[in-house]
Amino acid sequence: MSELSVKHLLGIKYITEDDIQLIFETADHFKEVISRPIKKVPSLRDITIANLFFENSTRTRLSFELAEKRLSADVINFSAASSSVKKGETLIDTVNNILSMKVDMVVMRHPNPGAGVFLSKHVDASIVNAGDGAHEHPTQALLDCYSIREKLGDVAGKKVVIVGDILHSRVALSNIFALQKLGAEVKVCGPKTLIPKYIESLSVTFEPNLKKALQWCDVANMLRVQNERMDISYFPTTREYTQQFGLNKAMLNSLDKEIVVMHPGPINRGVEITSDVADSKQAIILDQVQNGVAIRMAVLYLLASKIQHHED
Q1: Residue 3 lies in a domain
Q2: Ramachandran quadrant class, 138 (left: phi over 0; alpha: psi -120 to 50; beta: rest)
Q3: Structural domain boundaries, residue 305
Q4: Is the dihedral of CA 162, 270, 294, 68 positive or negative?
Q5: Is there a single domain that holds both residue 154 and residue 270?
């Protein structure tokens, strides 16, 4: 299979296992490109990409921007997090303004779940969802699974526990979809108040005890506590959260095997993981960052090749 089955990347839910494998193979190639002294390829020289961020994001935006520049695309950045863009109509207005500039692709982060799907129905451009509220964050899940594949050889058959704030996390949902499509087994662990009710319907089991979860898994993905999404208190104090669900070196060393530790960033050091865990050789957090650029290059390249075929 040489092309994606979709013209947008709206969520992991909409793509196939073949799509994911194709993205990984393409990322392998780009990873090799990034390690060269000249890191740019002319692949997207005639493609214009607009980055639309209706919500703050430093790491994801920089990663996409770097990926776009490495592919020699023309890039327009539109940060609406600080402007008054809140309603659906103004999303359309903004997009129409941008489309009048002849944009081929839009990378969008938006606080409303489904914003990318909405956009894809109203514009011609290819849409990449860079996070829609607490719903999906497909490129993060792809880079996470890619990092597991790189470290452990394969995702199929691996046991992965996602720890922390599952309820507010778009990373968790995308990861669950991607891991399951690739044949991994998934558990979630965290305060019961932060575990969504529908989790069982996704064939994911809930393990309330962190030690048991770690003893079971090959990989632990430690999510950030998303204080900014919490309008009410879901657990008594940060200190209590850390005591129950924080990962420290002593706990890591007490397991009878070596597990891989991941974190989507930014890390609250000392809350969900301690610094000595984050900086240990079992953590692949910096590999995730590096792989993020290669994965995003792969996604943009594969979607752009669909655009170019249409035009030929």
Answers
A1: no
A2: alpha
A3: 12-135+291-311
A4: positive
A5: yes
User: Tokens representing 303?
Assistant: 């979607």
CATH code: domain of residue 123: 3.40.50.1370
Cα of 69 vs its chain's centroid, Å: 20
* Same-domain check for residues 123 and 39: yes
Residues linked to residue 185 through DSSP beta bridges, in sequence order: 159
Host H or E run for residue 290: helix 285-311
**pLDDT digit string, tens, across residues 211-228:** 999 999 999 999 988 765
Q: pLDDT, tens digit, for every residue of 52-82?
A: 998 888 899 999 999 999 999 999 998 776 5
Q: What stretches of 229-284 show up as alpha helix (H) in DSSP? A: 238-245, 249-254, 275-278
How many domains is the chain built from? 2
Give Cα 115 to chain centroid, integer Å.
Answer: 16
CA nearest neighbour of 113 among 88, 133, 143, 139? 133
Amino acid at 7: K
Residue-wise DSSP of 152-164: HS-STT-EEEEES
Is the CB of residue 167 less than 8 Å from the CB of residue 1? no
As annotated, the active-site residues are 59-60, 87, 109, 137
The full 3-state SS of 60-74, as one line of letters, equals HHHHHHHHHHHCCCE
pTM value is 0.94
One domain, residues 244 and 296: no
| Rounded CA separation 287/265 (Å) | 12
**Phi and psi at residue 274, to the nearest 5°:** -85, 160
Put residue 131 in one of left, alpha, beta given phi > 0 → left and psi -120 to 50 → alpha.
Answer: left
